[in-house]
Amino acid sequence: MVAAAMPDLQAAVDDFVIKLKRRQVEGSLATAKSTVLLLRQVVSHQRIPSSGPASSLIDAVKSVGSRLIAANPMELAVGNMVRRVLHIIREEEATIVAAQVGVTPVSDSDDDADVHGVPGLSAVALAAANRTALRAPSLHNLLESLPTSAGANVEPVPESDTKSRSSDKNSKSWKLKHGVIDAIGLLLGEIENYHSEISEQALEHIHQNEVILTLGRSRSLLHFFREAKKKRSFQVFVAEGAPRYQGHKFAKELAAMELQTTVITDSAVFALISRVNMVIVGAHAVMANGGIVAPVGMHMVALAARRHAVPFVVLTGLHKLCPLYPHNPSVVLNELKSPSQVLDFGEMSDCLDGTDGSPVHVVNPMFDYVPPELISLFITDSGGHNPSYVYRLVAEIYSPEDH
Amino acid sequence: MAAQRAGRRGQEMADDEAHTPLQAILLADSFTQRFRPITMERPKVLLPLVGVPMIDYTLEWLASAGIEEVFVFCCAHAKQVTSYLKTSRWKSQPNFKLTCIQSDDCVSAGDALRSIDQRNVVLCSSKVLGDFVLVSGDTVSNMPLKEVIQEHKARRTKDKLAVMTMVVKRCKPSPLTHQTRLGNEELVLAIDPATKQLLHYGAPNKQRQSILLDKNLLAGRQGVRLHLDMQDCHIDICSPEVLMLFTDNFDYQQMRRDFVRGLLSDEIMGNKVYTYEIFEDYATRIDNFRAYDVVSKDVLHRWTYPIVPEVSFSDSQATVNLDRCNKYREQGATVSRNALIGENTFLGQGTTIGSHSKIKNSVIGRGCKIGENVVVEGSYIWDNVTIADNVQVIQSIICDGVLVKAGARLEPGVVLSFKVTIGENFTVPQYSKISRVPEPTEQDSSDEELEYADSTGDDSGGRIYISANKVQVGQDGAGYRWFKDAVHDEEWKQSAAAISGEKIKELMAKQEQEEDDIQDVDVIPEEKLLSDEEESVDEDDNFEKEVEENFKRAVNGVKLENVVLEVNSLKLGYNKAFSDCAGAMFRAMLNLALETPHSTAAELLSTTKQVISKWSTLFRNFLKSEDDQIEVLLKFEELCLESASEFSPLFSKVVEELYDKDLVSEEAVMSWASEKAGAEEADKVFLRQCESFIKWLNEAEEEESEED
Q1: Which residues belong to any copy of the W2 domain (chain B) (predicted)?
Q2: CA distance linking residue A361 with residue A344, whole number of Å
Q3: pTM
Q4: Which member of A115, B33, B254, B255 has the lowest number of beta carbons within 10 Å of its beta carbon?
């Protein structure tokens, strides 16, 4: 049955790869969501051999993942999601291994029990040891490790007792798969709900009568403002975000919810920044060093904000958090779009050809990289963080071997 | 604008459910010789454009625009095209069906469409059913198609006669733009601004510096907008009727020259063509070397995004890195540290570039070896080319497997076809085209617009090598220079060489000069325009010429019924009566008789008689009434007076012959005679000549009546 479903999966992967290549799916939220959905399919279709179940899953996800990443390297969220899923698999495996280590002393002879002392306690200790061995220690781990491993200790005991060895293995791989799919479901929920998680914090950051500046359009920012609007009255300057002019659309949306909105050109940012209390923007991706990849023009806004000591706040979901560093040359940090957004075709055809002297170049980059020094705060679905804390978040949600 | 576009894209995806499969017909042949001599060995659609065959650009665009089924019509080198497509990834694309149609006997786009129509009738399965997109295999575009197709369909539901929608794009509003950018002719479009209906398509009249428009076009319209600044993208959304129209009008050859103009001038059927203007998107066709150069640069400049080199859409697996200033480099290209790679360059996999070489504005394919101190500027070098040291390549196109030996120099506009070798220190002059295949002689090229020669090239290679000409390609070079097009007046316009500043200045000066001229004679042409008479005289001439053409076709073996149909359609087209047709046809017959060599009048008479008897069946089709027959006689008289004075002594004889063959009834002769009886004396020459014949006719009639 699984084999019959495989061509389906293949077609789904191909379809998504083509859409990514043709730039028909763009934006971190859409790509992240589709990637996770696809990877869930991959996991559920993967036939798991009894030996090394986790590694086969990891290989399957990796092979699909590398194709997706290659299809559009600029959509960093795709890579993030692949790594998140890999991390989930590793975690799940670790939990199961830990549970088994906890189990063996109980089911085996009493000699072991003697060595380890009281069986129940030793299981907990072993599991904790195992986890820490598999995972870098982190704040979350330290707090969580006790209850989870204790819980794992209780469950698997009767199963391994009653069933034969092979069925035990099967149930183990089944459990792994089940656990992974559940966890991917949670991840999906996290991606879908990150707007509301972020916007819940709106009231802490936006105060009465403040003037807020933003550039371009961001969906999470829209939710953020909507939430703040319920309790506070404030004013928003929207820089239009040439040459894609997403700001125009954003301003319309803000005006529709009766927010006092002003559209300015990108070049007017510096002229108005002195009147602004806070800059809040969305990002395309957050790099591991705390810098962001954001729509073009953002670096300029960040510099203007720094010059006038205006806080520069970035809203981002955890799915945008990328474990790569921006100095890594293998990461392409920009996408050059068609010059037609900047200039009408044919308008300068005489000089574009370079028949008379040197030709005019029209460059239309999509993104800016804003270094971490210019960013005051990240508001994520797990709360507010400093740029310097980003590496910590990365360590928590990704496995180092997947970077 | 951009936001709109993004929204549009999104909406397209949402609309995906409303499902009728979108189909396209791709003509994998341009039916011209502009890319000769290269196209002698490889079909045009497989020529690489920035490392990828042109057809892949077209297919990628169609696929990404949501076309689900493509019929590729292969003609020249059909086998190469189909075998390429078979192994390509297009066969395995999800939601994308590719069907190849092969044909060997098509010489034009019209033939191709007729052939598709016939097969459609035969196969009748899931073949072209609804509206379809018609493009040629050398189209490079990134425009979304859903919207234009929807617009077309919406119009069709309201008006069944809106058979076609043409995509146009505004370009720089200068009359020189067309020429300098794409090497095309100037183009004037008349468009109804309210409905976007196309009213006129054509080049402006060079001599008169004017455009002739039918004044009926203005009737019932708020206005007509004349465009000199529109570029025809050669992307058409057609209804199934278009195929039928091609079948009905079997003399339609080209899409634009014959079909579009035919539709526009044909008021009886009332079919309409509409335009759809694109703004931000890119769309153009590569139909000569100039366009090849320009479009390659546009691709490097990323106007075609997302169809750009580093977004791999072809089969090649190599990843492409993009550096600042549009420098593309495939993985595995080796560049010496001393080499200078300038802006707008593409380097293919496995290519090596020697030290101190300078590459600028150029595309270099895969597996090439470029030596030291080589200068490559504005050139297109395909795969596996070897260029030795100290060579200069400027604004040239070099095909696969070429060897350029040390110290050689290629001047602007040079085209080196497959496997040519250029000798040491040899300078290839401007605009020369060199190929391993010798240029066909005049007789050979009688099957003119064909690029068959499905030869594999290998078998003939050795033989040609020996007979290579040293003067043309240098010492130990290999290849023939093609001269046929070299003398071509407009070479500068269509070669790969960029048009020099001087040439543009020269053109501009000419332009200004012409503009001055117009101002000088400003009043006169307008008067000319107004004088309907002249126009109608023109039309008469045209009509007669066309009828004659058709008659000649009949002589050359085209089926009679086809010719009859054709002449009938001409009759409708020019709004003529049968009598006009008959007159024109008779004139054609006499011309034919005149053309056959003859020495005496008697000989001429006998050939005339032969012609008349031979073509009487055809001729009779147009002699429906007595009036037609009278018209023939009048025409004959006129001819004898003017062009074909040789016939004047034979007038009565020919009339008798016509009577004998039952082509002209005696009533017709009699009424002609009575009509002429009142004429001036000078006009009665022929009447007098026929006196005896008429008398005889009269007597015969009397006898008949007596018998009764």
Answers
A1: 533-707
A2: 13
A3: 0.73
A4: A115
